[in-house]
Amino acid sequence: MKVAVFPGSFDPITLGHYDIVERAAPLFDKIIIAIGQNSQKKYMFSLEQRVEFIKKTFEKFQNVEVDHFEGLTIDYCHSKNVNFILRGLRNPADFEFEKAIAQTNRELTKENQIETIFLLTSAGKSFISSSIVREIITFGGDYELLVPDTVRVPIKK
């Protein structure tokens, strides 16, 4: 069975994330969208909100599930017996950053290797990032064009 973990903070999930999962869904038997928790990081949305956003977004996808974890992504993958990590690339800077992580993961998992699969975000979505969405939300802008319909928050104007 081909299972991939799509890790991230998803604070919040964006149409860029959706694009990657929608296009990867036919390639894998199962995709686990794994929300990484970092105790040092301050999130705009609670873990519960992010889980709910993602579950609602992908409720029609039979092979997509949502989970969360703390620690290293490769440790989470080993705990789930997963051999693929799914990552989206928006631009060359993403590639360089993700390449370094993928190479490190390969070095750390020589005996039980985990392959990273990269998908390029569709051109019309490549400018979207969660940090941009958070900034727009913070200042009361129209963020709804950048996220799935399931992500709705009250805006302070």
UniProtKB/TrEMBL annotation:
Keywords: ATP-binding, Coenzyme A biosynthesis, Cytoplasm, Magnesium, Nucleotide-binding, Nucleotidyltransferase, Transferase. Its cofactor is Mg(2+). The keyword Cell membrane does not apply. Pathway: Cofactor biosynthesis; coenzyme A biosynthesis; CoA from (R)-pantothenate: step 4/5. It catalyses: (R)-4'-phosphopantetheine + ATP + H(+) = 3'-dephospho-CoA + diphosphate. It is found in: Cytoplasm. SUPFAM superfamilies: Nucleotidylyl transferase. ATP binds at residues 9-10, 17, 88-90, 98, 125-131. One of its GO terms (molecular function) is pantetheine-phosphate adenylyltransferase activity. Its main location: cytoplasm. Its EC number is 2.7.7.3. The record marks 17 as: Transition state stabilizer. Homohexamer. Reversibly transfers an adenylyl group from ATP to 4'-phosphopantetheine, yielding dephospho-CoA (dPCoA) and pyrophosphate. This is Phosphopantetheine adenylyltransferase. The lineage of its organism: Bacteria, Pseudomonadati, Bacteroidota, Flavobacteriia, Flavobacteriales. The gene is coaD.
